[in-house]
Amino acid sequence: MNFHILTLFPEMIMQSLGTSITGRAIDKGLISVNAINIRDFSDDKHKKVDDYPYGGGAGMVMQAEPVYKSYGYLVNHIKLSKENPADFKKPRVIYVTPQGSIFNQEMAKELSQEEDLIFLCGHYEGVDERVLNMIATDYISIGDYVLTGGELPAMVMIDAISRLIPGVLNNDISSEFESLQDNLLEYPQYTRPEIFMGQKVPEVLLTGHHAKIEAWRRKQSILRTYERRPDLLEKANLTEEEREYLTR
Ligand code: ADE
């Protein structure tokens, strides 16, 4: 899977995603991360990429032209990178914005099926609407709060998508049976020692009885979701019996 990011801060992306699990996935050739500096496509002698908003108002707006040119360059680069030209199809372009649909696990899963994805990171008060109309296919937010730019949200999404790609996590199944898969939060986890500051690991986990452990974990997941994220429970697949012990 190839991630392409149109940004004013390519070094921010490359440094962060080059670390830890995504860094290892890059080294293994499971993902690639290609950050393009929009500023390189400014024709202005000071490499300016923003200007005052028409109609007035606070802040600056990213100009259409450098964004459009960087996109054109990138699409051509992607096209040329395909061994078989028939493999080329125009990649989706995600404009990262607080005005988008809110990112979730299901979207991560869906996006992980793409071969190439382009993220456009805005700064200042946004990007000239005309270039968005021309290139953006998806508008995605990572939550109802406003950040200073689109780089962190793009990296959040790239991280969430990458870990769903086979081979990226050490254990392939671990991303399947995890938090939010069934709209339930994950059960509590424990590791050695058996007693920490007087707190003992739940007895059932020491029995080696897999069916009992599974049942305990399922119940803990449900209770935890009920306490912390009751909104998720409506979408979760619970049995009659499970619904019952929540009302008790
Ligand atoms: N840009 C600024 N804030 C953002 C957010 N919450 N999600 C996506 N992009 C953003």
Automatic annotation (TrEMBL):
Function: Specifically methylates guanosine-37 in various tRNAs.
The protein, known as: tRNA (guanine-N(1)-)-methyltransferase
Methyltransferase found in the keyword field: yes
Pfam family, one: tRNA_m1G_MT
Any one of the GO CC terms: cytosol
Predominant localisation class: cytoplasm
Enzyme Commission no: 2.1.1.228
Binding residues for S-adenosyl-L-methionine: G122, I142, G143, D144, Y145, V146, L147
Family: Belongs to the RNA methyltransferase TrmD family.
UniProt keywords, alphabetically: Cytoplasm, Methyltransferase, S-adenosyl-L-methionine, Transferase, tRNA processing
Entry's Gene Ontology molecular function annotations: tRNA (guanine(37)-N1)-methyltransferase activity
